[in-house]
Amino acid sequence: MADYAKKNVWHFDEIEEDEETARLMPGFEIQYIITDDTTDHNDKTVFGHCVFPPKSQHFPHRHLAAAEVVYVISGRVVNGSVDEDGTINETECSAGMATYVPQRQIHWTRNPYDEPCEFVFAYYGAPSLEKSAYVDLTDVVPIENVEVSGVLVHDEKVDTKLAHYL
Asked: Which parts form a coiled-coil structure per UniProt (predicted)?
């Protein structure tokens, strides 16, 4: 991440693209705005802004040290997660909808639609992506980037040992 003079108020345009974020989500516009690198006395929170391009996706992952909230500003995305019993759920989320993901739960966000989706997100429990203990599960939980209308519960399940998060 760039070396920022720490302050308490930021505009997302002030935040440079981070190399690790670009690797995980190529082609996305994403800024980790409030982190321990940008704000003094912050040891538990991340706040960010993102635009997912049409037909893009952020693959299954978990944060071992943080819960996450996503709030959709415009457009639509599909937010997915894996329940403790291994059930895979996906929900179409449009403007005004918020999603909560508990710490350690497998989850993802994808945009199978033809328009971009803008949203904000926050991690609670860690002040950066790295300190959230991000675990990439792309190869373990394969998800197709297909449209969802409402809620989709998949027939296949994830192994409960992997799905366990409580």
From this structure: none
